[in-house]
């Protein structure tokens, strides 16, 4: 296979999954023979191609092919882990031996061990995530050049570029444990993106756009991506500052994801059992307005995080995370669940396809409903305190008057407390940004502090 090619359209993924499954079973048997009470094995294969161009020239072409084998063993409540990328028999044997040696020298942890056997998934299926395509470097370069050129041609004020990129990836994984569970997954992903610079000197503004999908045919056209990147950069020219004050803040859909991610982090098991969350003991309490809801659906066709089982083999399930504004449950794997005296929610490894229920229309109608305030289209910095919920981040976007965009703004900071912000959400738009496993439209927070000049 040429070094710059992904696997060809000839699909041997099932045979490769069978090979990884056989290796996993072999490692489980070795661990049992070494005296381990419990064992789990992960096997992964990944192949990728990444191309970057800038100002009409190719900057980088990178092909990757990675493999990883991980073994975790438990001797009672003592845990040991080891990994390798070498599939030779002696290397696999040494990996199991090393994991066992580590376990014999670690302290007991009363919450250590596999997830409960009764929670293992039994209905294993796929969710239309595997779409391999012949994708060589020459074609990827042509697409990236087309994307950037389309953007640079939009307006003479697009004088520079941060470049365009095209990526393709294919991934196979197998998880097995000594409960008798064995499951395999396969997925592909493709992306095209472009970032352009408008204006000159100190007045330059940068913005971009990208498209990502599990199937190549679901991507936006390269030219459309480049043109949208240019339009976004041009719209930011001649920004103004804002006076400090309290105003409504509308987070665009791609920015609103971060608010939901902050909530998920706060109700995740690791933060809760460490007492490092501003939402301790929040299950069963109202955190959002009474109309607000977040649903987790692991079974969404072509969902970015669709799966029949989590990273521990536990069966996933479709359920409400938030309903009627009330936190219905936490986000738990088996270890954090035991720490909290609860049961795994099938979220070892993270959440699966969250959808925030909309109660409003598209972005234009959201702007009209807000009337006057700030539309945030970019966030900077990591100013979120997970323990207190205090929120302070650099931002840029647009000032809105009479329901319409008046002018761009930058050099501002938006601040509040996430608990107060969640309670002050007035609307969620229908303009869902589907480029993530967190699917939400724009979110309007009724009042935040905006620090400008």
From TrEMBL:
<dbReference type="InterPro" id="IPR047657">
    <property type="entry name" value="PmbA"/>
</dbReference>
<dbReference type="InterPro" id="IPR045569">
    <property type="entry name" value="Metalloprtase-TldD/E_C"/>
</dbReference>
<dbReference type="InterPro" id="IPR045570">
    <property type="entry name" value="Metalloprtase-TldD/E_cen_dom"/>
</dbReference>
<feature type="domain" description="Metalloprotease TldD/E central">
    <location>
        <begin position="131"/>
        <end position="237"/>
    </location>
</feature>
<dbReference type="InterPro" id="IPR035068">
    <property type="entry name" value="TldD/PmbA_N"/>
</dbReference>
<dbReference type="InterPro" id="IPR002510">
    <property type="entry name" value="Metalloprtase-TldD/E_N"/>
</dbReference>
<protein>
    <submittedName>
        <fullName>Microcin-processing peptidase 1</fullName>
    </submittedName>
</protein>
<feature type="domain" description="Metalloprotease TldD/E C-terminal">
    <location>
        <begin position="244"/>
        <end position="452"/>
    </location>
</feature>
<dbReference type="GO" id="GO:0005829">
    <property type="term" value="C:cytosol"/>
</dbReference>
<comment type="similarity">
    <text>Belongs to the peptidase U62 family.</text>
</comment>
<dbReference type="Pfam" id="PF19289">
    <property type="entry name" value="PmbA_TldD_3rd"/>
</dbReference>
<dbReference type="Pfam" id="PF19290">
    <property type="entry name" value="PmbA_TldD_2nd"/>
</dbReference>
<dbReference type="InterPro" id="IPR036059">
    <property type="entry name" value="TldD/PmbA_sf"/>
</dbReference>
<dbReference type="GO" id="GO:0006508">
    <property type="term" value="P:proteolysis"/>
</dbReference>
<dbReference type="GO" id="GO:0008237">
    <property type="term" value="F:metallopeptidase activity"/>
</dbReference>
<dbReference type="Pfam" id="PF01523">
    <property type="entry name" value="PmbA_TldD_1st"/>
</dbReference>
<feature type="domain" description="Metalloprotease TldD/E N-terminal">
    <location>
        <begin position="40"/>
        <end position="103"/>
    </location>
</feature>
